[in-house]
């Protein structure tokens, strides 16, 4: 009897927990399709007018282009830096390798505002200033740990036997990497790239420090827009961002499998 009551309480807690997580998101998604001029629930009628508002408001379109460019650029740079670093550090047992790994992963544990302020001060000091290049560098610093961590975890999980066998059969280091190592760590690269893109695309604290008419990202424009008006176009943008994340997860799941990505992370 007590065991059954315990399972009942646990089931109720799980339902309430998931409702707490999902209901606010569901209300925002439904609210993005309202025909009213303000956010209300339940909505008085269905309409796509707020998605049309996104297309009609030039700052939204410009900021989406900037956010996509920064997210793609930061992800590519993170992979170019993070993959070689992960291969060099993952299997090393030296204290220097451990300290380097901790240093490269440290942005995960630091407040974004501190990173943004420090990056702004340093990049301005060396002459980069507030520019797209500075924004890209700052986002790469934040995205790098995601690629490094997933690739290192995947690489540690693979044995050395396949690489040694390829080398014994005459493959040079480049051929070993291209034909043996790269296919093995590809799920880790995919997982890290996905996390990196989403973290950069949704980042507000760091982007806020580098805001200029040419470098305003979508989160910064949404925040500025809400300071003066709060119509359902914000909900429509949130719905599009949510759809982008879901589509990315589905695509990567079809290519590599969410379970393998989770194990790698």
TrEMBL record:
Its cellular-component GO annotations read: plasma membrane
PROSITE patterns the UniProt entry points to: ABC_TM1
Q: So which domain of life are we looking at?
A: Bacteria
List localization entries. Answer: Cell inner membrane; Cell membrane
Q: How does it sit in the membrane?
A: Multi-pass membrane protein
Keyword entries, A-Z: Cell inner membrane, Cell membrane, Membrane, Transmembrane, Transmembrane helix, Transport
| GO BP | transmembrane transport
According to the entry, every stretch annotated as the ABC transmembrane type-1 domain falls at 64-252
Question: Any transmembrane segments, and where?
Answer: 12-43, 63-90, 102-123, 129-148, 230-252
Q: What is this protein called?
A: ABC transporter permease
Query: What is the native source organism of this protein?
Result: Methylobacterium currus
